[in-house]
Give the backbone structure.
Amino acid sequence: MVIRVYIASSSGSVAVKKRQQAIVGFLESNRINFEEVDITMLEDRRLWMYQNIPEEKRPEKGNPLPPQIFNGDDYCGDYEDFFQSKETNTVLSFLRLSTPPSVKDYES
């Protein structure tokens, strides 16, 4: 599966831009493979993202804002969920990734 971060490259919101940068920067610095999906470029990508966010995670009014994170077709969460997983050191679990092998595994 591929980690996909749905972003808006032309967002006018400073908060959205900072949140997108925080997620992308974390994934890059931890060498976690991911793909950025820009929802401002293609309508079908934006619609797919909207339709695949669980009902309980959608705002009461309007559409969900980026960044939104998926592992393949499985919804992982939004920025708040990501931030919480980072704070509790559970990012791999949040991203639905298996834990990387420990150093001991290489010593065998």
Observations:
- Confidence is low (pLDDT under 50) at residues 101-108.
- Helices lie at 14-29, 43-51, 79-87, 91-94, 103-107.
